[in-house]
Write a structure and sequence with these properties.
eight-stranded antiparallel barrel, six-stranded antiparallel sheet, single chain, 12 helices, Beta-lactamase
């Protein structure tokens, strides 16, 4: 009886410790985070380093799994990870600094600095590189067609030559958005030609040193020893783990950055208190979204994706290369951010980031989701259902076809049992109904009562 009582008290203790944050996120106990990453919390498994930042503090940081399976080196918050395309915001930052200092204009023709490029029907501007609206064919797709293995040693000049040999574009610059690694490769070259410093040196002097990011660098020398670096892995056959780290790779621009949880916290803080010298509008530029020729505004800014998670406005970016997986997610309105850096190819850090937000911001999400709650009715079918909020999630009640939890997809869009629920807003931005669709029955409107 005594042991049963102690067990119940322990459960109550965990529940109290892990209650959602709205008042104080630091009250969320590490037990829930350990459960979230338990699958990789072994010396025999690759894993992740995790950081949670709130109001100027690192409120949680921990490592799970091994950085190097050969030597059994554990992952810690100080482990240095390759972060793939999360690097793009740092490459874009170099362009923003040069623009802010008047060293270039975002409207400049890229050929002004890189004349090796062909003269296309419409000029490619620097901002087209930043916003992925250049129309250039993607570098890694070109390498694949040219039968160039990504593991080969390929210099920046080799990459420029491959891009410059293309005489056609996917579309006219500014007409469309198409995520593109060629543009960010050219941005690295552009930084060097405008500043006289490599992207690595420019960022070291102008960003990483001023911010105190001592463990961060653009990796442009494959022979360099990086102390505390994680190697990367992917699952193989029969559950085996294979080393997938490419020691020959040294490309910078679209990727190439090595960093730590602690250094990403310093970068996060700079979004609130800019400490980059000789800049006045750096943060404004970083958050400037691209605009297409037809006037449509993109969700993409300077290496930053603007999005929405369960009603919360987000800014972030993911990265994926050679078995490394990374995700850096910011929720500026609550001065909250999550960094998940992993060295196993089948880990989904974006999904983990969302679950961490669910854990720490449960009360905030609960309030945000209430605007969707209510009764929805369709006259054609003379049927209705109710949507309720519980535990930071939306649920459908009183309908036999899809009672249960709605899963978040994107801003104002959820899914359930093959149906898409797209909430519709009126001119005052209030939810006035929901449009239901599946592959065989589309756009069926239910009005909110």
């Amino acid at each position: 009886m005594k042991s049963k009582t102690l067990w119940i008290l322990a459960l109550l203790c965990v529940w109290a410790c892990c209650k959602a944050i709205a008042e104080n996120p630091k009250q969320v106990c590490s037990t829930r985070m350990d459960e979230l990453f338990s699958r990789w919390n072994s010396k025999c498994s690759p894993g992740c380093a995790v950081g949670v930042f709130h109001e100027g503090e690192i409120i949680f940081q921990r490592g799970y799994g091994s950085a190097n399976l050969d030597h059994g080196v554990p992952i810690t918050p100080n482990t240095v990870f390759y972060i793939g395309s999360v690097s793009k915001q740092f490459t874009a930052a170099a362009i923003a600094i040069l623009a802010d200092r008047g060293k270039l204009s975002l409207k400049d023709d890229v050929r002004k600095y890189i004349p090796e490029l062909p003269e296309f029907e419409r000029q490619i501007r620097i901002k087209d590189l930043v916003f992925h609206t250049s129309g250039l064919r993607d570098l890694y797709a070109l390498m694949s067609l040219a039968e160039i293995n990504v593991a080969n040693v390929l210099s920046i000049d080799d990459k420029l030559n491959l891009i410059a040999r293309q005489t056609d574009l996917n579309f006219l610059p500014g007409d469309e958005f198409s995520y593109n690694n060629s543009g960010y490769t050219l941005m690295a070259i552009l930084v060097e030609r405008v500043s006289g410093q490599s992207l690595r040196k420019f960022m070291h002097d102008n960003v990483f040193v001023p911010l105190g990011m001592e463990n961060t660098h653009f990796h442009d020398n494959r022979h360099e020893i990086v102390r505390g670096r994680a190697l990367s892995y992917s699952p193989g056959r029969d559950g085996e783990i294979r080393l997938t780290y490419l020691s020959n790779f040294e490309g910078v621009g679209p990727g190439g950055l090595y960093t730590t949880i602690g250094d990403l916290f310093l970068w996060e803080e700079n979004f609130f208190y800019n400490r980059i010298p000789d800049t006045r509008n750096f943060l404004g530029l970083m958050h400037t979204k691209g605009v297409l020729n037809n006037g449509d505004t993109l969700h993409y800014a300077f290496g930053l994706n603007f999005g929405n998670y369960k009603g919360l406005k987000t800014v972030g970016h993911g990265g994926s290369f050679m078995g490394f997986r990374a995700h850096y997610l910011r929720i500026p309105e609550h001065r909250f951010a999550v960094a998940v850096l992993c060295n196993m190819g089948d880990i989904n850090p974006a999904n983990l980031s969302n679950q961490i937000v669910d854990l720490y911001l449960a009360d905030v999400i609960e309030k945000s989701l209430t605007e969707y709650a209510g009764t929805y009715k369709n006259i054609e079918f003379e049927t209705d259902f109710e949507i309720v909020v519980s535990g930071g999630e939306l649920y459908v009640k009183d309908h036999s076809s899809f009672d249960g939890q709605l899963l978040f997809t994107e801003a104002d869009v959820f899914r359930r049992e093959g149906w898409q629920f797209r909430f519709v807003r009126n001119g005052q931005n209030y939810v006035e109904g929901v449009m239901l669709s599946n592959p065989r029955a589309r756009n069926i409107f239910f009005k909110k009562q």
